[in-house]
Amino acid sequence: MIFSALFERRHFFGPNGLTLLRAVLSLGLPFLVLSPLPGAHIAASIVFTIAAFTDLIDGIWARRYKLETKAGKFIDPLADKMLTLGMLGCFAVAGYFSPWWLVPIFFREILVTFFRIGWVLEGTAAGAEKLGKLKQACMIAAISFALLRTHALDFNAIHGAEPALKFLMFLALAAALVLCIASGITFSMHQRHLLQTPAFARYTAAMGVGLIKFAPGTWGSALTIPLILMTAWSPLLYLALFAFLTWGGFWAYLRLEAREEDPGFVVLDEACGMFVTFAGQILTPASVVAGFLLFRLFDIWKPFPVRRLERYPGYKGVLYDDLGAGVYAWIVLALLNQFVF
Q1: Structure pTM?
Q2: By residue range, what is the domain housing residue 232?
Q3: 4-8, 36-40, 234-238 — which one is most confidently predicted on average?
Q4: Predicted local confidence at residue 61, as pLDDT
């Protein structure tokens, strides 16, 4: 398995070592970008430059000396997405541009990453395409101009450059958006044969984490929390993702080789139930934890009439009981938000 190969000593050196360094640097960048401390933005620019430079060097190094590995083809795009999505999200939070700019970008990047992980589990790996690399370059440019704009706002001596940097940032962001959509379409078309296998349908129904033997429903519910937090700012986006996950459950279930009555590895239904739990709720650390625990409680307990909903044939029975558990959890969480939190 590639995941075990990632932890072999040889993969901590060479091109893969640079890729892992980029992933580690990406984790600290959001704190520097959003920090009010003096010098934090300069530090962010330095760290981002180093991280972006590793993105250039590791690919050249791997190709020139024929050090390309399946593990590298997996972790390299994952590290790229950690770097770019984290930075773009920070600048959206800081008010540099509307979060709507990032909706198609995040959707494409998360979905393609999900595809790649599934194919890795099947023993295949899809490398990056030319359009994807060009998209990555435009995203790096947009982030670079945003960082320079930050410095222009911080220092009066270069404040006059801020309008030009703002224009260049939006120009690069628009190019990244167009290329993101185009590369996502071409990537899916070129790899569409890998989307039709029963193994991939099983992986999709499981959201990946459902394949973990211990408490798959709990893992699936936990994995849904970041998706809820990323879409809660827009009811339309929240509803669209809920509909997409619902459709994905039916799509995957119909393609399973053996369809059990309620297979434990299927957790897309838990994800939909979690979306019902948090619909329109006030989200705080306490309410998120409470909502998660409440949903798991009602999903396991299945009070009347939730258990009866399991009797519907096919995926309807798999899904409906989780939606019912989500309704119970929503009611209790709404009361807690009103009178406790």
Answers
A1: 0.84
A2: 204-339
A3: 234-238
A4: 72
Name the token pair of 201.
């349908």
The count of domains in the chain is 2
How far is the C-alpha of 201 from the C-alpha of 198, rounded, in Å?
Answer: 5
Burial of 317 (0-12, 13-18, 19+ CB in 10 A): middle
CA atoms of 144 and 17, how far apart (whole Å)? 24
* Whether residue 218 is found in the same domain as residue 316: yes
Write the pLDDT tens digit of every residue in 295-318: 999 999 999 999 999 889 889 999
> Is the same domain home to 44 and 17?
yes
Helices (H), the chain: 2-5, 14-33, 40-64, 70-93, 102-121, 130-154, 162-190, 198-205, 216-231, 235-254, 268-278, 285-301, 306-309, 315-339
Query: In the predicted model, what is the mean pLDDT of the chain?
Result: 87
Q: Which of 42, 193, 173 is nearest to 103 (CA)?
A: 173
Burial degree of 121 (CB within 10 A; 0-12, 13-18, 19+): middle
